[in-house]
Amino acid sequence: MTATTDSPTPRTINWAILGTGSIANDMVQILHQLPNTTVLAIGSRSPSSAQSFGSKWNIPRRVSYAEACSDPDVDVVYIATPSMRHPDDCRMALQHRKAILCEKSMAPDHIVAKQILDAAKSANCLCVHGVWSRFFPAMTKIRQIIHSGEIGEVRSARASFCQNDGAGSCSALAETGIYCAQFLQWVLGEDASNYCASADEKNGGGIGPVVKGATQTLHESGFDEHVTAIIEFPGKKIGTFECSLAHTSERSATVYGTLGVINVPFPFWCSTQVTVTKMTGLGSQQWSEPQVYEFPLPSEIVPLSTSEEVEGRPQTPGFNFVNSQGLAYEAAEVNRCFRGGLIETPLFSTAQCIEVLRIIADIREYASKGMS
Ligand SMILES: NC(=O)C1=CN([C@@H]2O[C@H](COP(=O)(O)OP(=O)(O)OC[C@H]3O[C@@H](n4cnc5c(N)ncnc54)[C@H](OP(=O)(O)O)[C@@H]3O)[C@@H](O)[C@H]2O)C=CC1
Ligand SMILES: O=C1OC[C@@H](O)[C@H](O)[C@H]1O
């Protein structure tokens, strides 16, 4: 088996994609290369876009969103539309009892996310929030390092995801902040289900993460474009958070322990490298040689080229986003869960998904109060 196969005798799974934009372009190349996987339908708001994308990527059924979701032959719907559409697009797919892989952010907050996840549970449908970071082997390694005690007791962590990339067209919290929130939860959080139990105790010192400070800059469109926050996790562990769509940062993350640090360099949200540096002795002045762990992207997945022109424009072959080969981890996990009859993935559980969106909502609320 390779990084992207999930069982020795798998059944073929038929996918539909909603939306013909940048990430759909990357994911279709992944799905075409996963074993026993077919991209059966492309759904678009516009018949001509469905036609162009379908012809470029050899997808037989070129239809509307509603037709893609209601197609009886479709097993999994990949929602690759803009974030503000995700709740409605999820509901549409669930009405037809389809499994869902929904791009981030699945919902603006934990309340809407819970409604969707509850609907998926009632329909007995798999619903995966496509925070693709969670499916990278490097993320598993980070948890192993923490649990091994190599860096001592973890006290804090930071994550920064700032890129000058269309501020004003969407929320930085939803686009890049979610990667910081999920990282901090992964390295500082306890079992996310504890958090759900305390979800109504907003100021009652519940056992989940609590936002201790947050500030934001709003774009004239009303969307947040730069947000910073401090989050206290159980055990007084502190997470520092920064996201922006208006300026740049190194887009890395770090975990700090009593005996050393874990560095996750750019691009931390789709990481292929983790470095551990131990620091001990007087003034933490004894540094170990950094131990570097590499997790190469799945070599069987390559960028596919196409000679098609779309609307008269030649198309650039390859992927739009850094490390998009790693989308294969997420898509293979969806296939595995679907085949196994699961309704959630253990790699990003329903409870963890709700907790991450709760952190985002609490940061938004805290930062908004600071502005009034
Ligand atoms: N996992 C990852 O690495 C990445 C994830 N993303 C996420 O994927 C989602 C889509 O992002 P991206 O592909 O960059 O976006 P694009 O704008 O490139 O594409 C979105 C597509 O959605 C459809 N659409 C439906 N309603 C609208 C609307 N009101 N305005 C614009 N397009 C609309 C369009 O397809 P049509 O006209 O055919 O219906 C469009 O092509 C976002 O939620 C984003 O956060 C984005 C980049 C990377
Ligand atoms: O989700 C994403 O949004 C922003 C992109 O730059 C990034 O690569 C991608 O993962």
From TrEMBL:
GO function terms (MF aspect): D-xylose 1-dehydrogenase (NADP+) activity
EC number assigned by the record: 1.1.1.179
Catalytic reactions on record: D-xylose + NADP(+) = D-xylono-1,5-lactone + NADPH + H(+)
Top-level taxon in the UniProt lineage: Eukaryota
Location of the GFO/IDH/MocA-like oxidoreductase domain: 140-262
A Pfam family assignment: GFO_IDH_MocA_C3
Entry similarity comment: Belongs to the Gfo/Idh/MocA family.
UniProt protein name: D-xylose 1-dehydrogenase (NADP(+), D-xylono-1,5-lactone-forming)
